[in-house]
Every structure is written in structure tokens, then in C-alpha cells.
Design a protein that fits this description.
alpha+beta; five-stranded mixed beta sheet; 5 strands; globular
Length: 174
């Protein structure tokens, strides 16, 4: 439970606009957010079975889960600063599974929901740069990115050659 003044924005969100992202058509096993909106606002197909708006009729690609491993590297900085920055990033974005770090590099792993690999990779490539100032992350560059689908991730783990076992959820030194 978050404790704050009623109407107060969450800490660390000043100056950032929140956007709503509709769930994929397969998210709840059927209807989309657009169709739910049509039902509540009265827009869309008529009760008499009139035609649906073009937007509601277009098929949407179902979203999928992608396992992301983002590697960053750069000039050495004190370990305390790296840890604090990664902990702030994890606090701001609880979807992060685990982060490992040293004074000159770090690795972040998490699951991303996206329509396809291109979308998942685009979000992952923006993560470090967009949160560098808000989480006070080191000025490192992205040096590696792996994006694999859920099935491939589980197949690798089952065959024993998946990603190295992650430390428990959280931020940990190498």
C-alpha cells in the first residue's frame, strides 16, 4: 500500500507523463480495451447489430512475453553509486527481475510484454538512457542486448544451457 497525500503523484514521477497502454486482444482471452470502451460509452456497434467502427474490426497482433538481458558498460564509478542507481531503477520499475553490477559494468534482466521482438528491443534500448537522470545511473553505454521469447527462454533452461542462473530478485554485485 502506498502512503501519500490524496492526489499526490508517486515519488520520482514529477515531470513524467503517464500513458495508458491497452492490453492485447489475447490478454483476457478475448475482447480488447477498445471494445470494452465501446460497451461503456455507447459508441461502436449498435444494439441492432449495426456495423462496428473500422478500428474495432481490425485484427491486433497478440502481445507476447520476451526475456530481456541488457548489458551496459563504461568508466568505473564507486560501487555504492552503481548499486543505488540500480536500486532506484528497480524501485521505479518493479518489472525488473534482477540486476548484477560491478564498478564498470552491469546487467539487467526482466520480462517485457510486447507485440514482437522489434517492439521489445526498442523498449529495452531506451530503458537505460531514459532513466539515466531520474535514477542517477552511471553514464554508461549499452554494450549488449538479448531478447528471446518465453518459449525459447524455457527451452534453454530445460536443456541446461539457458542464461546463467540469476541471483535472487534484486540488485546484486557480480
Amino acid at each position: 500500500m502506498r502512503r501519500a497525500r490524496p492526489g499526490a503523484p508517486p515519488r520520482g514521477t514529477a515531470g513524467r507523463a503517464l500513458t495508458s497502454v491497452g492490453a492485447g486482444a489475447d490478454f483476457d482471452g478475448g475482447g480488447s480495451a477498445d471494445l470494452d470502451e465501446d460497451r461503456t460509452t455507447g459508441s461502436g456497434p449498435t444494439a441492432a447489430g449495426g456495423p462496428a467502427p473500422e478500428a474495432a474490426r481490425t485484427e491486433r497482433t497478440p502481445s507476447r512475453l520476451w526475456h530481456i538481458t541488457l548489458s551496459v558498460s563504461g568508466e568505473a564509478v564507486p560501487l555504492e553509486e552503481v548499486r543505488r542507481g540500480l536500486e532506484q531503477l528497480a524501485h521505479d520499475h518493479p518489472f525488473l527481475l534482477t540486476s548484477r553490477y560491478a564498478d564498470d559494468h552491469a546487467e539487467i534482466r526482466y520480462w517485457e510484454e510486447a507485440r514482437d521482438l522489434h517492439d521489445a528491443a526498442a523498449v529495452a534500448l531506451r530503458l537505460w538512457g531514459e532513466h539515466r537522470s531520474t535514477a542517477r545511473l552511471p553514464p554508461w553505454e549499452i554494450v549488449g542486448l538479448e531478447v528471446i521469447d518465453r518459449e525459447t527462454y524455457h527451452q534453454r533452461v530445460a536443456e541446461g544451457y539457458g542464461p546463467p542462473p540469476a541471483a535472487p530478485v534484486g540488485v546484486h554485485p557480480y
